[in-house]
């Protein structure tokens, strides 16, 4: 029996957090907390008691940033990305300058034209910034 024709009740789930790996989870948590105006709320230790997971939230959405011992940043744009973040701001130019001041870098490759700007977070992973979407 396929999943679409199963007689089992449909399980409805919710996403509770989004997790990201990097070479320094604390640095990523601090960067994204500052970038979004959110708060770093909790940290979790590994089996040796060393904090390796750090939570950042606005009260409704939670990001978890992990310190991964063997993390290697993608060689973007050569490497495909399993996922990335798109962040929207009212003033994209001001946001870009602020993010660069927080430790982001701007790669030469910018495939978004006037639609979005690609930046690299402190771990070397790309994310995009753009203007907030306006409903028409």
From TrEMBL:
The record places domain VOC at: 14-132
Name the record gives this protein: VOC family protein
Among the Pfam families in the record, one is Glyoxalase_6
Q: Which organism is it from?
A: Streptomyces melanogenes
